């Protein structure tokens, strides 16, 4: 991990924290969050590293204002009462190339569950401005109902309007702090 040791800031113009849920059992809806803060400290010894991400639930963006309003409402995030979704890393199982798993506590609507992200580092490079950048992808699947996101509607053809399984996808570029 020595190549990656240090403190990093996620580049908001090159990072997406998003999700995918199945809609009406036949198609996928993708969304992202436009506001978040991340603290990333990579130590020489992985167990001493720290990652904490706070996502503003009201910043959800699915490309449809009506749907976004519904997702912010009490049926899902209840952003007014629960403005933050938080991930705090608890276990780093990352190899010297930056690949592996990152386990942590995910809190949504005051419910905390352990989740494991599959992490793949795409590379480390110096950009034209002299910054050290690390590109990575991370993903996990959660059952949204375990976090109190219980809304659903039955379909006449069977099944439900919104899948319980949701994939969380992060594509990021982290800049090493000077």
UniProtKB/TrEMBL annotation:
Annotated Lipid/polyisoprenoid-binding YceI-like domain residues: 7-175
Signal peptide: none
TM regions (residue ranges): none
SUPFAM superfamilies cross-referenced by the UniProt entry: YceI-like
One Pfam family named in its UniProt record: YceI
Family per record: Belongs to the UPF0312 family.
Record protein name field: Lipid/polyisoprenoid-binding YceI-like domain-containing protein
Organism: Corynebacterium casei LMG S-19264
Lineage: Bacteria, Bacillati, Actinomycetota, Actinomycetes, Mycobacteriales
């Amino acid at each position: 991990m020595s190549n990656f040791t240090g403190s990093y800031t996620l580049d908001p113009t090159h990072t997406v924290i998003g999700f995918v849920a199945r809609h009406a059992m036949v198609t996928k809806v993708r969304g992202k969050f436009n506001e978040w803060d991340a603290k990333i400290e990579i130590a020489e010894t992985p167990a001493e590293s720290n990652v904490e991400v706070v996502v503003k639930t009201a910043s959800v963006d699915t490309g449809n204002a009506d749907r976004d309003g519904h997702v912010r409402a009490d049926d899902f995030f209840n952003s007014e009462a629960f403005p933050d979704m938080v991930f705090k890393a608890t276990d780093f199982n990352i190899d010297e190339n930056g690949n592996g798993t990152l386990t942590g506590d995910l809190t949504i609507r005051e419910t905390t569950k352990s989740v494991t992200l599959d992490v793949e580092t795409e590379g480390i490079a110096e950009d034209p401005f002299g910054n050290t950048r690390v590109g990575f992808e991370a993903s996990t699947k959660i059952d949204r109902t375990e976090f109190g996101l219980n809304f659903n509607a039955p379909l006449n053809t069977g099944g439900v309007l919104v899948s319980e399984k949701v994939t969380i996808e992060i594509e990021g570029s982290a800049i090493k702090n000077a």
